[in-house]
Fold this sequence. Notes:
Blueprint: H1 2-11, E1 25-32, E2 39-44, E3 48-61, E4 76-89, H2 100-114, E5 117-118, H3 130-141, E6 148-154, E7 160-163
Parallel strand pairs: 3-5
Antiparallel strand pairs: 1-2, 3-4, 4-6, 6-7
Amino acid sequence: MVGEMKEALVARGICPKYPSSPNAVLAQVLIRNDKGGGLDLFWAHPMTIILAKDFYFEAAQSLSLFPEGHKCRRLHGHSFKVTISVRGPVDEATGVFYDHAVISDAMKPILEQIDHTYLNEIPGLENPTIEFISRWLWEKLESKLPGLYEIELHETHGARSIYRGD
């Protein structure tokens, strides 16, 4: 029956044959139309949101693969800021997509591992550029945070990397 109703709505020009968005779904919601009070199905676009949570850590590093004389070859440290973003649909009943505590719980052991350390000594971070740290964080979080969308890592106020898992 839903298929027949959809085809009738498409034929009458009330809704498109194919949704304009790949995320669009045919909602099983009935609304009153303005042509006599009947009920029709309509295309609904679920609300998709990106939630982000910031974390901070202090760490030292040396980038030995940089050219001789480059300041980053020397031992130095940063006050890092990392923003973890998740993306997905908002539950229309609750108005919530994600509990921020889930992100905090996933980050807690990672921050304990990297805060106030020499990053070069951590397995997988022997060359701790912000690019490689971002990928390392992604690999640690991917299985713990469904909908992981983006990791933004600031090493200074003006320098950052953004990684989306590819």
